[in-house]
Structures are given as C-alpha cells and as structure tokens.
Design goal:
Shape: globular
Mean pLDDT: 93
Largest sheet: 7 strands, mixed
Oligomer: single chain
Distance between the termini: 40 Å
Length: about 120
C-alpha cells in the first residue's frame, strides 16, 4: 500500500527558515510527480510546489516563488521543501502529495498526513 510520510516543520519567527521532507513507499512513483500542498485554518487546501519525475521540472505557487525550493530524489522517492524568508501567512498544515499534474490542478492520488508549519510575527 502506498504511503507518504512527512517530517520536519515546526515553529519559526517571520523571516526564518524551515524545511519539510516526505518519503514515499509502497509503490513506484516514477511516472508521477511529488509535491506539497498546504491548508491554513478556515481556508481551502492550496498547491505550493511540485516536481515532475519525468523531466525533473519544478513548479511553484506565485506566493512562494523565490522563497521556497523543492528538491526531489526520484530513486529514493523523496521530496524536500526548503522554506526561506517565511511569513506569517505561510502558517498552515503542509501535506505531501503524489500524482500526475499536481501543478495544474489534478487531484493527487496519494496524500500524507500533514505536518504543521507555524510562522510567528
């Protein structure tokens, strides 16, 4: 059974950095992409960043471009999201996801359990 397991996150002051990581297991994700979504209290879940294993292309939401970096290892089925210059509005539960077309609104096939990222003002 496919499983996505997140680690990292936590609490940081505005302007600081955090990272979250995700390891996928249980199946081969070579034809998929992996990425991150987030959901803040009272808001809908939104796309953050993704990487395509086919071409290793990366995609970012406009709100995080230039601040977040997604790094993936297709051989290990892992993705890492480095978050710099964090803002209070980045506070959310961050979810790892796997599937095709993550950046264009295709619903992921797999979700992780989520990890909390809190940015204090």
């Amino acid at each position: 059974q496919a499983r996505l397991e997140e680690s990292g996150g936590g609490l940081v002051q505005a302007g600081g950095s955090l990272s979250v990581s995700c390891a996928a297991s249980g199946r081969t994700f070579s034809a998929y992409g992996m990425g991150w979504f987030r959901q803040a209290p009272g808001k809908e879940r939104e796309f953050v960043a993704s990487i395509s294993w086919m071409g290793h292309d990366t995609y970012y939401a406009d709100s995080v471009k230039g601040r977040f970096t997604i790094i993936g290892d297709s051989a290990k089925n892992t993705v890492h999201l480095q978050m710099n210059h964090l803002k209070p509005e980045d506070t959310a539960v961050y979810y790892c996801a796997a599937g095709a077309g993550l950046a264009i609104g295709v619903h992921p096939d797999y979700w992780g359990q989520g990890t909390q990222v809190t940015v204090s003002a």
